[in-house]
Each structure stands twice: as structure tokens, then as C-alpha cells.
Write a structure and sequence with these properties.
- The structure is a single chain.
- With about 170 residues, the protein is of the alpha+beta class.
- The protein has one domain: Aminopeptidase (3-Layer(aba) Sandwich), CATH 3.40.630.30.
- The protein contains 6 helices and 7 strands, in the order βααααβββαβαββ.
- Strands 1-2-3-4-5-7-6 form a 7-stranded mixed sheet.
- Strand 6 and strand 7 form a beta hairpin.
- The longest helix is centred in the middle third of the chain and has 16 residues.
């Protein structure tokens, strides 16, 4: 049985065949403002990243999985854990679904799989998401899973020549 399998998507480890998908994703400047990326990635670096992606989450403190549409086995996005802190049982979560696949329930399906994985398998007590205020889709997505806005970082991100705030959303496993 595949643990990370939903109605529309499955979450899986990175594969060598994902190189072109990651290359396109990581170098799409539309995503840079939410990923804190400032420079393009080479295929060489991404190939190395994929080769090292099997490292233990406890060692590298992060995890990236591919969101794959079940009906055609196509990679449509990524879901990440970052700032993984096993001592305090918490991690940040980020999700990216390519624009042409948005508003189809894929992100929601991916989170419905990933949240239980974080709490039951990784034994996390809490997960958090950093979201810019104008990203209404992400705010609605995470709020729909009972993430609560717990704070706002003022002038936190410098995007397109202006300082922007960032919200912190948190889900605690009760």
C-alpha cells in the first residue's frame, strides 16, 4: 500500500526523470518570490540535488516530494518540509502546483495526504507555513486545513523593489 496516495495525486520521492520538471520549476521567476530564490539553477546542480535527495530528513532537515497526478503519472508540483526540527517536533511546509494545474483540488489533495504523514510518521507536533498576504489561494488552502494565522512579519520580504509582509500560519497536532 502506498501511504502517500490520495484521490487525485500521489506524493513520491524525486527520480532522475524529474530533472527537466525541476529545472523548469526552479527557474520559473514567477515562483521565486515565494521560494526566496534569486538565481537560476543549472541542470548539473539539480541533478546533484536529485542524487542526494535520498538523504535522511533527520540529517538534512528538509524533504521534497513530487506531487504527481494519478490519472497520468505526471509531475504537477512539489511539496516540501523545511526547517525540520526533530527536537521540537516542528517543520515548515511549502507547496507549489504549476499554474495550469491550479484550482483543480490537487494542492488540497496533496495536503490531505502530507499533513497526516507529518504528524503520524514524522511525529511532528506542529507545522507552519509562511504566506505573503496577497496569496489568497494559499491562505484559503491552509485555512481550510485549520492552519491559524499566528503572526505577521512586517517588511519581511523584498520583492520587485518593495518590502512585503509575510504571514505565519500554524497547525498544531492536538
Amino acid at each position: 500500500m502506498i501511504i502517500l496516495h490520495g484521490k487525485k495525486v500521489r506524493l513520491r520521492a524525486l527520480e532522475p526523470e524529474d530533472l527537466d520538471f525541476l529545472y523548469t520549476t526552479e527557474n520559473d521567476t514567477n515562483f521565486w518570490k515565494v521560494s526566496n530564490t534569486q538565481v537560476p539553477f543549472s541542470k548539473f546542480l539539480l541533478k546533484q540535488y536529485i542524487e542526494n535527495s535520498s538523504q535522511d530528513i533527520y540529517e538534512v532537515k528538509q524533504l521534497r516530494l513530487i506531487i504527481e497526478e494519478i490519472k497520468n503519472n505526471k509531475a504537477i508540483g512539489t511539496i516540501d518540509l523545511f526547517d525540520f526540527n526533530p527536537q521540537h517536533h516542528r517543520a515548515g511546509i511549502g507547496i507549489l502546483v504549476h499554474k495550469k494545474y491550479q484550482k483543480n483540488g490537487f494542492a488540497s489533495d496533496a495536503l490531505s495526504i502530507f499533513i497526516p504523514y507529518c504528524f503520524k510518521v514524522l511525529n511532528l507536533h506542529q507545522i507552519f507555513a509562511n504566506i505573503i498576504p496577497d496569496n489568497k489561494q494559499s491562505i484559503a488552502l491552509f485555512s481550510g486545513f485549520n492552519f491559524k494565522k499566528i503572526g505577521e512579519k512586517k517588511d519581511w520580504l523584498f520583492i520587485d523593489g518593495a518590502f512585503n509582509d509575510e504571514f505565519i500560519f500554524q497547525l498544531i497536532n492536538e
